[in-house]
Amino acid sequence: MVKKINHIGVAVKSIEEAAPLYREVYGMKDEGVEVVAEQKVKVAFFAVGESRIELLEPTSDDSPVARFMEKNGPGIHHVAYEVEDVEAELAKLSDLGIRLIDTVPRCGAHETKIAFLHPKSSGGILTELCQVNH
Questions:
Q1: Which range marks the domain in which residue 8 is found?
Q2: Which DSSP category does 23 fall into?
Q3: Nearest to residue 106, comparing CAs of 86, 89, 79?
Q4: How far is CA 41 from the centre of its chain?
Q5: What total number of domains does the chain contain?
Q6: What's the CATH code of the domain at 14?
Q7: What is the DSSP track for 44-86?
Q8: pLDDT tens digits for 76-119?
């Protein structure tokens, strides 16, 4: 079951160029930058209430985010919902016939477990399930 919106992922060409909008113009708290090698991205999180904006900068031309930007340009990439147990949610969604990109969770930023649902099964929106390990 979904607990809350964990973050909204925004594809950007450069975190360095995009960050001032979120930090200085919007006044969001900068939570730092991290490289997620498995995803071939560098990410920066900005807190807004209980949720965050995640800036995604591709670190490779063959990263999923780079391919997304080739097709769509910079902008909203995905919505991430926080769940208690990613594995259980994937099993439930699979049983419901939801098309999954990930059948098993992978490692995300901040030591989270993540999995993606295909946009064709989630209203045209790339959807991430995110399990926070406190």
A1: 2-131
A2: I
A3: 86
A4: 11
A5: 1
A6: 3.10.180.10
A7: EEEEETTEEEEEEEESSTTSHHHHHHHHH-SEEEEEEEEES-H
A8: 999 999 999 999 999 999 999 999 999 999 988 888 999 999 99
